[in-house]
Amino acid sequence: MSVATVSRPAVGSPVIGSPAVGSPAVGSPAVGSPAVGSPAVGSTVVGSAVATSACATGLPAVVGCDLQVPLVDGTSVTYANLDVAASAPALAAVADHVAELLPFYASVHRGAGYASQVCTSVLERARTTIGAFVGAREDDVVVFTRNSTDALNLLAGAVPGAVLTLDVEHHATLLAWRGAHGHRVLTAEPTVDATLEALREALAAQPTALLAITGASNVTGEILPLDEIVAIAHSGRTRVVLDAAQLAPHRRIDIAASGVDYLVLSGHKLYAPYGAGALIGRRDWLDVAAPYLAGGGAVRTVSTDGGTAEVSWSPAPHRHEAGTPNVLGAAAIAAACRALDPVLDDAVAHERALLAALTEGLAAIPGVTPLTIWADAPDRVAVASFTVDGVPAGLVAAYLSAEHGIGVRDGKFCAHPLLARIAGGSDAVRASLGLGTTAEHVERLLAALRTLVTDGPGVEYAIVDGRWAPASDPRDHDPLGLGDGPVAQGASCGE
Ligand SMILES: Cc1ncc(COP(=O)(O)O)c(C=O)c1O
Question: How far apart are alpha carbons 310 and 62 in whole angstroms?
């Protein structure tokens, strides 16, 4: 792969070159001032030309920043989306780019037509853009996947030996390796220093092909010192895969400088929710591994001369991309990378300022207990999980939605072992912030929690279809008019 040069500081770790925690936003207008250099949401393409104060963070706008949502009392309010870590809204620039591409939509790799050739070139250029965004080496490959889970499972099929993980991981990073060449799970220690020491000992004790490690915890946002981890792993000839699902949207990453061998990311967390993700990294394992899926697009030649199918597989990335590729998804991630790259330092500062307000505010509310993994994490993306004494997490989340128009996550966040250890196995509430988050969203959440712990919820709640909800809920749950018949609850992260 050839990696395009985009102007980026040479950084050896995800955090170098960013302002200190809690420092004010650099180069970005104060929250609430008019948007600078960001397209009006949707503009002609997305369909609602709006730039209300809810959209005006001074950073690139996200689609839906002015979304009005109904409350249980019959009024409505601008949505405070504090569930960005689960799935981030699309950047307006991403939605615009996808709309611009749609008239050209045609088959990729197989068509001689003009539109097919445009789509093929968009897909192949997307690899270069995404590789550059994470600082990929010249000879790294970028394989398109559905998401991070898919990318980790793909890599699991290519690892030539045992895998080590910490117990803090999202299930995607914890479970992909089962049944491979051996998988060990190490319980993280209460401090980062002790955890690094435990990793060093575990890697010295047994030959390990791969260390799979979180870029930023999806439960607490905490970030481990990446350079030190890579040095520990490489001293024992262990490769490192970085689960950057939560890190890539919120920190500058340079895998070449840090020495990370593989990285996975999800488009839907990177403001590009069009169904694609990526695995980026060293070619050798991927070129010899069995294709992730068998089928068209992954082969050089096929013959059935001997009565069975004889195949000569393509090298990576196409070897692992059988079937028609998701060109819109790939183009969307590349568009997000182009939009984020020039503003990432400002975005980091914006999110740090909001996280400081959130963590201080949460710590000051009696009965609210924030969750942390380590006492000394050197950095943290804007994710905060907490419990509220005497109030089930699901009820807190339902109350925030029904009475305050705030979207948060509740449960165990696909990190059951971690929640068992740091929350005594109980569910928690998670607020996560991003580009579209404003100070008003954070203030609204804190005010709502203060009201909850002093006065309780304003209406009655009950468990309806397995989830907490207002006992009487007049809100229209079908604003798109798709029909109001029974809807099966989708899969969740378990109980
Ligand atoms: C840290 C982390 N890793 C991996 C994943 C899996 O991402 P996806 O569901 O997009 O595959 C998530 C999703 O929440 C995550 O937070």
Answer: 48
Dist. CA 372 → ligand 1 center (Å): 19
Degrees (nearest 5) of the Cα angle 373, 375, 380? 65
The pTM for the full model equals 0.89
Instruction: Give the span between the Cα atoms of 311 and 308, in whole angstroms.
Output: 10
Q: Is the CB of 385 under 6 A from ligand 1?
A: no
Ligand 1 within 6 A of CB of 220: no
Q: What is the pLDDT along the chain (495 residues), one digit of tens a residue?
A: 443 333 333 322 332 222 232 332 222 323 223 232 333 322 323 333 334 566 777 899 999 999 999 999 999 999 999 999 999 999 999 999 999 999 999 999 878 899 999 999 999 999 999 999 999 999 999 999 999 999 999 999 999 999 999 999 999 999 999 876 899 999 999 999 999 999 999 999 999 999 999 999 999 999 999 999 999 999 999 999 999 999 999 999 999 999 999 999 999 999 999 999 999 999 999 999 999 999 998 999 999 988 999 999 999 999 999 999 999 999 999 999 999 999 999 999 999 999 999 999 999 999 999 999 999 999 999 999 999 999 999 999 999 999 999 999 999 999 999 999 999 989 999 999 999 999 999 999 999 999 999 999 999 999 998 999 999 999 999 999 998 666 677 677 877
Contact predicate 165/185, CB 8 Å: yes
CA 323 – ligand 1 centroid, Å = 23
Which of 206, 153, 203, 204 is closest to 178 using CA atoms?
Answer: 153
Kindly list the domain boundaries of the chain, sorted by start residue.
43-90+344-470, 96-341
For the domain made up of 96-341, give the CATH fold.
Aspartate Aminotransferase; domain 2 (3.40.640)
Nearest CA residue ID for atom 14, ligand 1: 86
Q: Which ligand 1 atom lies nearest to the CA of residue 215? A: 1
Residue type, 55: C
Q: Is 147 in the pocket of ligand 1 (CB under 6 A)?
A: yes
* Binding site membership of 218 for ligand 1 (Cβ less than 6 Å): yes
Cα dihedral: 112, 115, 120, 121 (round 10): 110
Token pair in block for residue 492 = 């969740």
Reported CATH class of domain 43-90+344-470:
alpha beta
* Ligand 1 pocket residue status of 388, Cβ below 6 Å: no
> Residues 436, 57: contact at Cβ < 8 Å?
yes
Q: Is 414 a catalytic residue?
A: yes
Ligand 1 centroid to Cα of residue 145, in Å, is 13
How much distance in Å is there from the Cα of 321 to the middle of ligand 1?
Answer: 20
**CB-ligand 1 contact for 238 (6 Å cutoff):** no
Strand partners, 464: 467
